[in-house]
Amino acid sequence: VQLQACGGGLVQAGGSLRLSCEASGKDYGMGWFRQAPGKEREFVAATSWSGSTAYYAESVKGRFTISRDTAKNTIYLQMNSLTLEDTAQYYCSKAKVYGIDLTQKASYAYWGHGTQVTVSS
Question: Among candidates 75, 78, 83, which has minimal Cα distance to 12?
């Protein structure tokens, strides 16, 4: 399984970015996590294998939207109203199996290389 994330960059507070992640392998649930310097990697958003169900961390609800294009084996993370606290390395990931808690880091077996998101004031 390979995951390739892209779309990070530098953006001003209040701006938007869209991350994408193409993944090979079976259609298990997928998610986005992020890690800021000196902090633990934390859950951001996840989507079920079909794309019909989404999960969000409280800190991003109403601002971020996760979506999935099963035909392209790609997930997206639309990030709006970005704040300084959103600055982090963002990682896409694929779950180990079906029917697992997609909000937990331990549920994921495959990780892509991170893409940096930096929000400036």
Answer: 83
- Distant-in-sequence, close-in-space partners of 12: CB < 8 Å, separation ≥ 6: 119, 120, 121
DSSP letter string over the chain? Answer: --EEEE--EEEETT--EEEEEEE-SS---EEEEEE-TTS--EEEEEE-TTS--EEE-TTTTTTEEEEEETTTTEEEEEE-S--GGG-EEEEEEEESSSS--TTSGGGEEEEPPPEEEEEE-
Phi, psi torsion values for 84, nearest 5 degrees: -60, -30
Which residues have a Cβ under 8 Å from the Cβ of 68 and sit 6 or more positions away? 30, 47, 50, 51, 74, 75, 76
What are the tens digits of pLDDT across the range 46-99? 999 888 999 999 999 999 999 999 889 999 999 999 999 999 999 999 999 888
Triad 24, 60, 112: Cα angle to 5°: 25
Strand partners, 117: 9, 88
Nearest-angstrom CA–CA distance, 94 and 79: 20
